[in-house]
Write a structure and sequence with these properties.
This protein is mainly beta. The protein is built from 2 helices and 23 strands. The strands form 4 sheets. The chain has an 8-stranded mixed beta sheet with strand order 4-3-6-10-11-2-1-5, with no helix packed on it. α1 packs antiparallel against α2. The protein starts with a strand and ends in a 10-residue tail after the last strand.
């Protein structure tokens, strides 16, 4: 839990010297990690003794993503009466689960936006944040992007700061990105190399209304996770913004079980697996996932690599399309 207590001085906007400011207003910031990673690992892997090292490796790989620790926090207070201009802005390095500091801002109505953990995330950054209706988190515009390196949290809260009234504001920051993993059983298969990519995820987040942006269709490069054991499966992870929803793209944060969803008729997001065989030919397998991947969620998909390089999914909500002797000109322009 991250709690930041901020005292907002009860001063009028013309009281420049703030000499008569005696009443404090408090803002409590709480980092809310709503995730299913432990349940997903236990359900999909930990129940199988031979897969326990994989569950441990995935947990270790993602523990700094699914965390309740804030390294940095960015606080903006926007005008809601006229042109949505940012009226006050502060950044703090916290490196703790709790911290306190004091803000001095004029009494008025604001839309407050808070963001945590973007300083060390080179794939996610703030853009056009001088006004609340344009402020957004975005990724670099490239054909191929890297996995996010931090768990990013955001919050927005209308605030009406009134003079002479005892007020306390609670700001809850929820996770804005998510993660997935592909675990490949390779026993009995013979190959030289396997590369894993994915697509179908949002490219940004509008901060004023918490809606995700799908401005273009980048390919996300996975990270391979080392798993102990001679016959251990290959494991690939990626941290991204969420996928599309079946009907809308708004983040769901109020449900008791926000990761339950109906299976869509068509794939919502996809893995692409490129298996290079001993003779140098490449087999492409497209794994189409028919369940959305939501903010704060972890989704694990298991599959088996066949001798011809094709990948057969074990999950009923994942379909597969295979191209043998694939060449790069027949599919995505994969930037490697």
């Amino acid at each position: 839990m991250l709690v930041v207590v901020a005292g907002l001085s009860a001063c009028s906007i013309i009281d420049a010297n703030m000499a008569n400011c005696e009443t404090d207003y408090h803002i409590d910031y709480e980092l809310r990690l709503v995730t299913n990673i432990t349940t997903e690992l236990q359900t999909e892997l930990a129940s199988h003794i031979e897969m326990s090292p994989t569950a441990t490796a995935l947990h270790n790989q993602l523990r700094d993503i699914f965390t309740d620790h804030a390294h940095d926090v960015d606080l903006s207070f926007y005008d809601v009466m006229e042109d949505s201009t940012r009226l006050h802005h502060e950044r703090h390095i916290m490196d703790a689960t709790q911290s306190s500091y004091t803000l001095y801002i004029p009494i008025r109505k604001y839309l407050h936006v808070a963001i945590a953990n973007i300083d060390d995330n080179h794939e996610v950054f703030l853009e056009a944040d001088e006004r609340c209706h344009t402020a957004r988190l975005v990724q670099p515009v490239r054909d191929t992007v890297e996995s996010h390196s931090t768990g990013v949290f955001t919050a927005r809260l209308p605030m009406d700061i009134k003079q002479g009234v005892d007020q306390k504001f609670d700001v809850k920051l929820y996770m804005a990105n998510c993660a997935s993993a592909l675990v490949l059983d390779t026993l009995g298969s013979h190959f030289k190399d396997i590369r894993v990519y994915a697509s179908g995820f949002a490219t940004g987040l509008n901060l004023a209304d918490s809606t995700y942006r799908f401005d273009y269709t980048p390919i996300v490069r996975s990270k391979q996770v080392a798993v102990a054991g001679e016959e251990a499966p290959l494991c690939f992870t990626m941290v991204t913004f969420p996928s599309r929803e079946v009907e809308d793209t708004k983040s769901t944060i109020d449900s008791d079980d926000p990761f339950v969803s109906e299976t869509a008729e068509n794939p919502i997001w996809r893995y692409k697996v490129y298996t290079t065989l001993a003779d140098g030919t490449v087999t492409e397998t497209v794994l189409g996932v028919k369940l959305p991947l939501r903010a704060g969620q972890f989704k694990l998909i298991r599959a088996k690599v066949q001798p011809d390089g094709s990948v057969v999914p074990k999950e009923p909500y994942v379909g597969a399309s295979v191209t043998l002797d694939w060449n790069e000109g027949t599919s995505w322009d994969v930037d490697v």
